[in-house]
Amino acid sequence: MPKLLNHPFCSIWPTISDPAAMRRLSDDIKTNGLLDSITIFEGKILDGKNRYEACHFLGIEPEFSQFKGTQFEALAFCYSKNAARRHSTIEEQVESLDKFTKHFNKGALSSGDHEGGLMDSSESIRESNSKTLHSCRASDIAEENEANGGGGVTPPPPPPPLSPSKAAKVLGTSATVIKDARRRIRKKEAAAKENFVDYTGFDVPQELRPLWVRRYEIEDIRKALAHFETVYSEAKQEKDLLWSIVGQEFQNAVKSAHQALSASRVYCVCPTCEGKNYRKCNHCRGRGFLNPGNWKACPPEVKAKRQQ
Ligand SMILES: [Zn+2]
After folding, report:
1. Of 150, 172, 189, which closes a domain?
2. Tell me: the pLDDT tens digits for 244-287?
3. 182 lies in a domain?
4. 281 in Cβ contact with 275 (< 8 Å)
């Protein structure tokens, strides 16, 4: 019996990688038997890949059930199984849902009753497992796979993720929560994709990377302060009553805050310590980074060395 592959829907969820956890699962199956059968769809494992691995390891032939339904229904089934099983943060849920919906084919999503009904669909699947799951044997799956020329239909190109309101319906939360979670996910992805090369083309050392990715925090506040300075000087010119009692000392305070922040800007890895033992370095004042002004003030030979 050749080993079964995981269906793309099922691959969205992590496989148990901790050997101790896998051993616990194997022990449980050895003692109590396989309580839930392995669900097969399109000749591949839709649900139960860890249990399948454990059975394979134990040399037990697992019980299988064939999922009968559309791709959308299979996806919703897989989602409801896994979402119910895991205690995950809202970000993890949104992330997995978005990855999930990417596997829908366009047809399944655009047909009205499916698009609006992801929740209804997974609900009804939960209730009608007996209707959609048909017990089957390993040899049946092998036969079917052969008939399908290897089994498994590759899903067509992905549609965009569900709208915030639909995703909210699936996860039982509000559209605002979904939007916020997606924003945080995008930020995290951007940070992960960020190539750790400073503005002079120097590789940012591992230890300084967490600081490097946060440099926008300073930039954002600098922008806000610069914005205030513009607004305030215009208001003063126009003798705008709204701003009339904001005194000069406030403007001066903003100006000096702006300057202090400029010193904190992160532009490049310090050429003196090169980010090693930076806490003791005077040039970068123990931060490992120079701001644009510091870099500008570096002697030409230092800059030339960096260009090599
Ligand atoms: Zn330094």
Report:
1. 189
2. 888 888 889 999 999 889 999 999 999 999 999 999 999 999 99
3. yes
4. no
